[in-house]
Design brief:
Length: 136
């Protein structure tokens, strides 16, 4: 007799943790007092692998464009979460990825670092990723 167990859902979750401001912008007076909170939520469908670092950079770039449209030139208090929903079967190897990125837009004389914080916490699926679709 063979026992079958219900197939467990494969989810990989990673997060930056608490809101983080890059060290160059964390000094007193480095950024303006006026801050506008922004949130970007994107869903990706990827094939064969998931490069979370690359996806985070794409989402942050979209959020930075929103900040620029508001007259800001830096993002502070950045925070992200990523959830990867694994493939139903290995033959397709299609992953659904949800990224939520939040930050506050502000003005500063210092340049924006142009990279998401705490990338070492990002967990992905190794291999060569192909992005099939993106929706925000």
């Amino acid at each position: 007799m063979r026992r079958t167990s219900p197939k467990q859902k494969q989810h990989i979750q990673s997060s930056s943790g608490e809101p983080y401001t890059h060290l160059s912008l964390d000094a007193p007076g480095a950024v303006s007092e006026r801050r506008v909170p922004l949130v970007q939520k994107d869903d990706f469908v990827c094939r064969d692998a998931v490069d979370v670092v690359r996806l985070l950079r794409l989402v942050r770039a979209s959020l930075y464009e929103k900040a620029e449209a508001l007259g800001a030139n830096v993002l502070i208090d950045e925070q992200w979460t990523c959830t990867i929903h694994g493939p139903r079967d290995r033959s397709g190897a299609t992953y659904r990825v949800h990224i939520e990125y939040s930050a506050s837009a502000a003005r500063s004389d210092k340049p924006d670092p142009q990279r998401p914080p705490l990338l070492e916490k990002a967990q992905g699926v190794p291999g060569l990723m192909t992005i099939l679709s993106r929706s925000d």
